[in-house]
Design goal:
Chain lengths: ~475, ~475
């Protein structure tokens, strides 16, 4: 019914048009208008936010329950039709593309907060709930979900699948640390709840962490339990400008060594990104290596943290501070940071912007950013940098005209050097965006023999290759 | 060369005597005196710290390098001889037993601290280093490794393999959070380094978390990178006695909701365990539900935390406090807690003591402990309880005469009810001890279809079943 063809070292299921058509007929009968095949909708579901070619699915299916997902997996397996889980489509490496065709499973209707366990600091959600919606619904509980990859619409299922992190990870961790369990439909139709709600367990292989970051290639998540945190008594924000990027990084390294000072966010923004933020958010920050900081804690501990951080920063060449004590100022500041990508779009209008990320041991962060800035200058690119300094993770927003083949080639060379630079520093080709299609080329260099272990796992758990084929391995 | 026979649903490699003898001959020639077959040594390497029958390996091999491990895996695969990695033998569920014979790989000679990356807060170690030795060698750096399962001699490799945690987990996490990567020899002889040193990565399946907690059944760890932390400026300890166990648990729940107050350890000790600690450590603590507490932070934040905790505890029926500000007092207190198991041995001399653990959502901790105490009373057992209240994890040290079949049967019934009680509360049959042989019976109830996923992974990555057979699945 379907044939496999080799892409690199890996066999990717190639959906057979007849089989897909048969499967769509069956699904249409079963699901009626929940199954859509309009081109605009299909193209929107293959949206990549990159220059990776849009490869739309053959259909979009708006799922409404886990029971439906089980049925769909059964039909897809019988006809060897690819299934691509879709949250909000905010992933950045072509994760939701359909290179072998198939069906995009849209989870936007499975977006309920099912249960809040306030005393356990966790909640159970459907995968289609967005992080903004989750936090809105949690507001009255005094609890919040901290993982914040930027996009307000990012869904919990998508964030789990890409192992998302973001600005808060230095204090609260990433999806790796904050997913207690997932319920997933496996390729054989079985339903696995990967763990109980206990905070920790030593009972067998860590299936939760296997599915978190698997980008929908091993199972389809239909429910998650995630950790929550008490909203801190006090949140204090600040902007701290440095004479040098090394000074900014050294301050962060020492602050973390000294216990973190209650730092919840510590974002490194380079000169070019400051310029874009100023344009977009109508701020007038000086164009210098800058840290955006946020401290969470009790009033006493947050103020203590700020004072200690300030003392450290001064010894490392901090030039000036702006403390944003008022909530409105704080929100404005972090809104500006969150819109860094759009700021680049505003500042260089009419251009495409390609967002990429790498992550290195924090001791190498200044070195990696400075080398990358030098590469950007030498290559003649515009590519502002913003990063999660506490994690050693940073982003380049590369400005280009993606329709210009020469420019694309230049940028491709830059991206390759960036990933290799991070790997040379014992870092990773992606700290939080994930592999998707865009970073597959670096997997062998990063993981060596580990790639074959990943392939063995993929082949065993999805022998027909129906789950999000052509991604990761 | 070897035959498989079914144990439960799972095929366990049964070492063939002729094959083992052949392999031992080859290994003797290759490794000389590093290979030992004396009965006392073999029995010591099958030591279970439980009533599980000692099943000694056929030989003990003191490995000295990863290259040797690769050779050994090749020879073991060729002759289908089981390999059982051995750290310090402090695991509690028969993890190092050799039910199918084979070779215990003793890592005590691979015990070096290879590199400390002070600015990155990590270090690279060989698996045989003990946590006490690691922290001794780190002393001059101002850094420490926090995971503390009690046993000073526990090795980092063993702790990673059992996903160990312990008293510090509420603040610093377990081995799951603190292992950045492992290097492991896989069953096909390939060497996998599961990740780089970056703090986080979204690059593919989380092989680190797959090997952490795998109890040596998927690969043999030859190197680890683990996270370190700055020694806190101030450590304050306290003992807080409550009128009720619910009061103690409610205090902990609220403290965590309010951000943790800098709590690094919060141990719940029941009346019977207090009695044993008093006998063993010559203390005179009142016999009541008690929290042992430790606060880490700056002086200001730790004192703030203590004050806030005290205020909370008073509203929940705390009876009295003892603050141990002097380091000697603090050490004495925590030494008493760490020796809880030995305290039970001292208090009921001549008896066997069986240590078990379960973990539940923290909201159910008081309920689970009280139900368990009622069960203990109804069954006529002696079984002091001590637990990591911040994680919902607790231990029973069951006193018995293991040679008395009737007593064993009583205790087996109690252990079964304890595990089922935890599962009924959406908890796990083991929070930190691991599965080994002792908890295999509960895997199906806990994981359902997930057990088959675990088996598929095991069969794929270790198709001959040579790695620690008869454990987990």
């Amino acid at each position: 019914m379907a044939e496999a063809h080799a892409v690199g070292n890996n066999a990717v299921l190639q959906g057979d048009p007849v089989a897909i058509s048969t499967a769509l007929g069956i699904l249409k009968q079963r699901f009626g208008d929940k199954l859509q095949t309009g081109e605009a909708l299909r193209r929107q579901h293959g949206h990549t936010l990159t220059w990776i070619e849009n490869q739309p699915p053959d259909a979009v299916l708006f799922v409404e329950s886990a029971a439906e997902v089980i049925d769909i997996v059964g039909i897809a397996a019988a006809h060897r039709v690819p299934l691509i889980p879709f949250g909000a489509g905010t992933s950045l490496e072509g994760h939701v593309n359909a290179p072998a065709g198939g069906i995009s499973l849209d989870f936007s209707r499975m977006n309920r907060l099912l249960r809040v366990n306030e005393r356990d600091l966790d909640c159970v959600v459907e995968p289609g709930i967005s992080r903004a919606e989750l936090n809105a619904q949690l507001r009255d509980t005094g609890l919040f979900f901290p993982v914040d990859p930027g996009a307000e619409t990012a869904t919990l299922g998508g964030m789990a699948s890409t192992r998302a992190s973001g600005t808060n990870a230095v204090r609260y961790g990433t999806m790796r640390e904050n997913v207690l369990n997932v319920t997933a439909v496996m390729a054989d139709g079985s339903v696995v709840r990967t763990a109980r709600r206990a905070r920790k367990s030593a009972a067998g292989y860590d299936l939760t962490r296997l599915l978190v970051g698997a980008e929908g290639t091993l199972g389809i998540i239909t429910e998650l339990t995630v950790r929550l945190y008490g909203v801190p008594e006090v949140i204090l924000a600040a902007v701290c400008r440095f004479g040098s990027l090394e000074g900014a990084c050294n301050t962060v390294i020492q602050a973390i060594q000294l216990g973190g000072f209650g730092l919840a966010r510590v974002e490194l923004i380079d000169e070019m990104q400051i310029r874009a933020i100023n344009v977009h958010s109508k701020l007038s920050l000086a164009e210098a290596p800058t840290l955006f900081l946020e401290f969470h804690g009790s009033k006493a501990s947050a103020e203590d943290g700020i004072a200690q951080f300030k003392a450290l920063a001064e010894t490392e060449g901090a030039i000036d501070y702006q403390w944003a004590e008022a909530e409105a100022d704080r929100r404005r500041l972090w809104k500006a940071r969150h819109e860094a990508y759009f700021a680049v779009k505003t500042t260089w209008p009419g251009k495409d912007v390609l967002a990429t990320d790498v992550c290195v041991p924090i001791s190498r962060l200044a070195d990696c950013v400075l080398s990358t800035q030098a590469d950007i200058a030498a290559t003649g690119l515009i590519a502002p940098i913003a990063g999660h300094a506490g994690d050693g993770n940073f982003h380049c927003s590369v400005v280009l005209d993606a329709s210009n083949a020469a420019e694309r080639e230049t940028v491709e060379g830059f991206l390759k050097r960036l990933a290799e630079r991070a790997l040379d520093m014992d870092g990773t080709c992606t700290g939080e965006h994930g592999v998707g299609q865009g970073k597959m080329a670096y997997m062998a260099a990063e993981h060596g023999a580990g790639v074959e272990v990943m392939r063995q796992i993929k082949r065993t758990l999805d022998p027909l290759g129906i789950f999000n084929p052509g991604k990761i391995v």
